[in-house]
Amino acid sequence: MNRNLWIKKALGIASAITLILSLIAVSSPVKAAAQADASTVNVQAAVPGDEKWSGQFALGTDGWVYATALAPNGDLYIAGEFTHVAGMLAYGVAKWSASSNQWSSLGPGVNSAATALAFSGNTLFIGGGFTQAGGAPASAIASYDVNTGTWSNLGGGMAHATTNPEVGALVFDGSGNLYAGGRFDSAGGVAAQNVAMWNGSSWSAMGSGLGTTDDVVSALAANINGLFAGGSFSSPAGNLAQWTGSAWTTLGGGTNGQVLALAITASSLYVGGFFTTVNGGALTVNHVAMIDTLTSAWSTLGSGLTGSWAAAIAIDGNDNVYVTGAFTQAGGAPASNVAMWDGSTWSILKNPTGLTDGLDSDGFSLAINGSDVYIGGRFSLAEGTYAASSLVRWNALDQQFYSPGNSVNGPVYALAISGSEVYVGGDFTSAGGLTARSIARWSSATNTWYPASPDQLSGCNGTCPGPVVNAIAVNGPDVYVGGNFTNAGGITVNNIARLSGTTWNAMSGGVTGCNPPFCAVIVYALLADGSGVDVGGMFNDAGATTVNNVAWWDGSAWHAFTDVGNTNTGTNGTVYAIAYDGGYYFGGNFTSPYMDLVYFDGADWFVGWSAPNAPVLAIVLSGSDLYIGGEFTNAAGSGANYVAVSRHGSDWQALGNSLDAEVFSMAMRGSSLFVGGYFTHSGASEMDHIASWDTVSNTWRSLGSGADQSVYALALDQNFINVGGLFHNAGAKPSQLFGRYGSINLFLPLTMK
Questions:
Q1: SS3 call for 169
Q2: For residues 112 and 21, what is the distance between their CA atoms, to the nearest angstrom?
């Protein structure tokens, strides 16, 4: 399908790139303590320090995906108008390995948009508007041997007398002949109007071709009953034609608008495009229809699609018909740019508990492998929540969207370090393209993503789309995970679970109970303690023990934080942060035993500071200094906004010019306090969502150009600051929702003689 041609024609622009810059934008919900903020994929100009940000944590492409195709071994190939895939250079074409879940380029790729793909054995055929492929001349069409990496220009390719030739449709027949459609008037030097056949060594024309020099063939389909073509052409009339073996004839009276998509079964040809009627206007179909190629009888697919166009059609092994394009309804019901027709009814692509469906912008291509449906286009989000930069995978069995790439596809709220591994928690469905529901592992030793466990989290409390992880704590071999979920690997766990290796374990009923009418049981804070973990959040009970928002698990049983006189048990509001220095600091949104920050020494509750005027979301201890971050302003009247320090038991003091918005996370290394949040400045100095405070020089320092959206989580390993949040760029380079800042100290091995 010639995506470039019909996009330019339909939208009246000189280049599809113009729209890439103006239309791609995403937004996403944030966790309870955070403010929502809009995001874009625009990357800032690089500044000193940006070289320390990793560029490997990206999803999808930096431009539109026009075509998708599957190799016999299950590898996915994509084509489009991009220069990077998952942060690596890949010009116009790229491969996603089914075995390693990694992206790779196809050598130098192509030098302009690639718009069509087709496989034959181990050879990938590529069509588009390019003039070079693999670094050598190739006019609009080329082939690539996936085993040897060898490129071929297919007899010199296509030419056009007045414009650049383009190939946007490719299909093979049962004899192995390749048919190419697009806009050209010769193929390999042979006169051929917009359609031609390649027999493996030479090109040949097909009758007088389709249309004229200004027309275009956008789609091709073939089976044992024949070859079919769709596009925008008037000879033969009607934009839809069948090849008789010697000439082209109009099929079924044609359509009243351009045909963009064809997909065929034994005798059923599914047709999609800009049209609204078929057979000379005799039948209203609204952008998609089916024609019996033996009888030329048309059928509707319900009431069709409400919108602009159907761009791609694919049929799975159960004869379900998937359609993507630019539409808002399928069969009269809401459907966002992708839907499925089962032969009698339309259905949307959405997790049963999800809040929205489909894609946030247009889809251009489809490829199906078993229960996996790959969709390419110009979208940024799938199901309204999950990052999907122009490419996404829908699994029809588990009803989830996944994003092939080198990061997670949803917000990151929690990070924890265990040796060379970073545990990442949040609200996502995939990590590195693998199924990973809300928790995953990133190995810095292998530079690879893994599910934290093959057994996934599920369920949630209250109105929510699925399980969410807000806190992770590592204690020896155990990894504690807390958030809003009810099951781990099929075991009832109630918002907190212990991961031993890759096996989930329940913790005596977990945490439950909250005070209606507006509440959901959620864990927000975890801190390793003894042989167990301290837990903070919004809950009444831990196991059978009344605890009120904070509890201690000793490895086998739950305990409450209660003073000697049993006057106060826990807090009367949510706990977001916990720290320990022989006693316990609890920060959150509560008024009892004290306001938003309190100290418990094991026997009683204390404060030694002025009460913050808004919730405390993060606490860090460094020697005798106590640092807090959150939503408060002017702590103790000192001008300390959103972050403050109590030195040697003093009341709150400001850190320089403070920050201009909320702090969600903090971490300490040596004399540097790292903070992440919603802020963008300290005084006049730009500090985009992440910064460090030097406790020796008492100055704020930026981390390059920072992140383009909120930072929710920080975790420090030996060489890097691991960062999670809602951002899509960090350090002026793509970094989807997870990033790393720092440098590796290299130690050369000692050679013994």
A1: strand
A2: 17
Computed on alpha carbons and rounded to an integer, the radius of gyration of the chain in Å comes to 29
Do 103 and 406 meet the contact criterion of CB atoms below 8 Å apart? yes
pLDDT at 724 over 50: yes
Amino acid symbol at 219 = A
> Is 316 exposed, middle or buried (CB count within 10 Å of its CB: 0-12, 13-18, 19+)?
middle
Spatial distance between the Cα atoms of 680 and 702, rounded to a whole number of angstroms: 10
168-226 pLDDT, tens digit per residue, is 999 999 999 999 999 999 999 999 999 999 999 999 999 999 999 999 999 999 998 89
AA letter at 46: A
Q: Could you count the other beta carbons within 10 Å of the beta carbon of residue 683?
A: 12
The token pair that represents 318 in the structure block: 């159960």
| Owner of token pair 């005084």 | 683
Write out pLDDT tens, residues 664-691: 999 999 999 999 999 999 999 999 999 9
Alpha-carbon distance 370 to 548, whole Å?
Answer: 48
Type of residue at 373: V
The DSSP code sequence of 358-406 is SBSS-EEEEEEETTEEEEEES-SEETTTEE-SSEEEEETTTTEEE--BS
Give 497-505 contacts, CB < 8 A, sequence gap 24+.
Answer: 497/457, 499/452, 499/453, 501/477, 502/452, 502/453, 502/454, 502/455, 503/453, 503/455, 504/453, 504/455
Q: Are 539 and 523 in contact (CB under 8 A)?
A: yes
Least reliable range by pLDDT among 81-85, 205-209, 532-536, 744-748 = 744-748
What's the CA gap between 688 and 515, in Å, rounded? 37
Q: Angle CA(95)–CA(1)–CA(404) in degrees, nearest 5? A: 30
Q: Which two tokens stand for residue 236?
A: 């033969």
Q: 58 burial class (0-12, 13-18, 19+ CB within 10 angstroms)?
A: buried
* Cis preceding-peptide flag for 236 (omega within 30 of 0): yes
* Of 541, 577, 572, the residue nearest 414 (C-alpha): 577
Backbone angles phi, psi at 395, to 5 degrees: -105, 120
Looking at the DSSP bridge assignments, the partners of residue 416 are: 423
Q: How far apart are alpha carbons 67 and 80 in whole angstroms?
A: 7
Can you give the pLDDT at residue 466? Answer: 84
At position 60, the amino acid (one-letter code) is: G
Q: How far is it, in rounded angstroms, from Cα 553 to Cα 535? A: 8
> What's at 283, amino acid-wise?
L
Q: Which two tokens stand for residue 587?
A: 């920060």
Q: Which residues have CB under 8 Å from 494's CB, separation 6+?
A: 486, 509, 510, 511, 512, 521
Q: Which of 16-25, 109-118, 149-158 has the lowest mean pLDDT?
A: 16-25
Residue 281 neighbours by CB distance under 10 Å: 12
Q: Which amino acid is at 449?
A: W
Tokens of 604: 């009683």
Cα separation, 228 vs 248, in Å, equals 9
Cα-Cα end-to-end distance for the chain: 64
| Cβ proximity of 419 and 393 under 8 Å | no
pTM for the complete prediction?
0.90
Handedness of CA 697, 698, 699, 700 (dihedral sign): positive
Q: Tell me phi and psi for residue 366, to 5 degrees.
A: -140, 145
Give percent of the chain above pLDDT 90. 88
pLDDT band at 16 (very low <50, low <70, confident <90, very high): very low
What are the beta bridge partners of residue 668?
A: 673
Q: How confident is the prediction for the chain on average, in pLDDT?
A: 91
